[in-house]
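Reviewer comment 2.1 asked that we show a complete input and output for one of the modelled complexes. We chose the inosinic acid case, as it is the one discussed in the main text.
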Amino acid sequence: MAKYYTEPSRTFSEFLLIPNLTEREHTPDRVNLATPIAKYKRGETPKLSLHIPFSSAVMQAVSDHNMAVALARSGGVSFIFGSQSIEDQADMVRKVKSFKAGFVVSRSNLTPDHTLADVQALKRQTGHSTVAITDDGTPNGELLGIVTSRDYRESRDAPDKPIHSFMTPFASLVCGRSGMTLPEANDLIWERKLNCLPIVDDNQHLEHLVFRKDYDGHKEYPLQLLDANKSYIAGAGINSRDYAERVPALVEAGADILVIDASDGYSEWQRDTIAFVKANFDIPIGAGNVVDREGFLYLVEAGADFVKVGIGGGSICITREQKGIGRGQASALIEVAEARDAYFEETGVYVPICSDGGIVHDYHITLALAMGADFVMMGRYFARFDESPTRKLKVGNNFVKEFWGEGSNRARNWQRYDSGGKENLLFEEGVDSYVPYAGSLQENLDKTLGKIKSTMCNCGATSIEELQRKARITLVSATSLVEGGAHDVMIKDTGLSGE
Ligand code: IMP
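Response of the prediction step:
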């Protein structure tokens, strides 16, 4: 006979937090949102942590290299979508890794024998007016000089003028040494009144350019998530089919963390994928999605570094309608968090969990953290921003961004073409939709983080761990939901005409 779970499956909107005593030290500026993203042993420092508990979904409409840079700059991580060719995904990872927070890999260099016309053509193509001149024109060739728009007169100089006749030669350049930190580079830029500081190694080979104009940017992002080389942290989604080819390419491109992307992760395919990665690489790998204790423990025993929770709660998701599997996001999370805590108690190994999908209001994030999530993954939330890869369109009087599920035919088309036009997809698990355009990631994130920190102070917590320990959570009735919104008043600005 089937096993029955008679407790209803619950969602975030059915819960609220009850405030605890807010003491004087509970102020938003003291709240630290750092959180582990890969498993660690009691007493050890996690191998990888986020500065804010946010990750962007493994989706074509959400996580490309631009989103990854923007989110890492704010302290979170993107998992670049895997529903594209291995080469394209690895290329996106490479773009994130070469975007070294202030250290730019100069990819479009010229040689001394190129001409002014080449400089002008390159400027039109890239929009950059500073061109590094290397012996062979490659990004890491021997640096022989720099050309900026101050080195030539567009209207007077002959287009065939060779670069070596007007570039600023290496001997006249101020350069930074390999391994110098960003503050050191910035100090040099200020001291020597430079616009651009080339960083070269002991053999005069170019490594990076650091620009004066980026200086304010570095100060603006105190939470940026960097690796030991000062490159942004990049995550990537993989699947349980082509991992033997995809994972080596992603690791080679510099990915810092992987996640297996599947709606149902409680499978032997995922176990095999984890085993392959663990046997061959030293890179953390998350797995999922699961919605209960059994699924969580299976993936943990298989070696997962974090586990993703949630089936069917995603905004574009129709898995529950199509297949009848899933669980309310809150119920799933609560059970998995209990299993994680018990596992930690027993083994001393802490396995972070990620609540994936179904975040509609900002307070849902705080609830997810309070219920035991170490971080959340969001699709719809990020899809609304300038940085998402999709088109911004005008529908009626409103701007919208496109947003489609990974289980929709739109997302899966790449695979269909990839496999020679084979129609292997009989039904969809996701829809193709619009979401309201919401502006830049940074300004929205600031608002959301402000709300989370403020609620945490209400709960008497200045860290996620403290919130999880102290949180008091209550179920709400259907009628108290009505009480929760504005009610029994006439909202202004609804088109009523008056005097
Ligand atoms: P959202 O934050 O509510 O938009 O949910 C995003 C999550 O939905 C993703 O991280 C995936 O776990 C899930 N998801 C993405 N595409 C699909 C789909 O086509 N069907 C079902 N779930 C999806």
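The chain has two domains: 12-100+226-481, 109-220. We note this here for comparison with the apo prediction described in Section 3.2.
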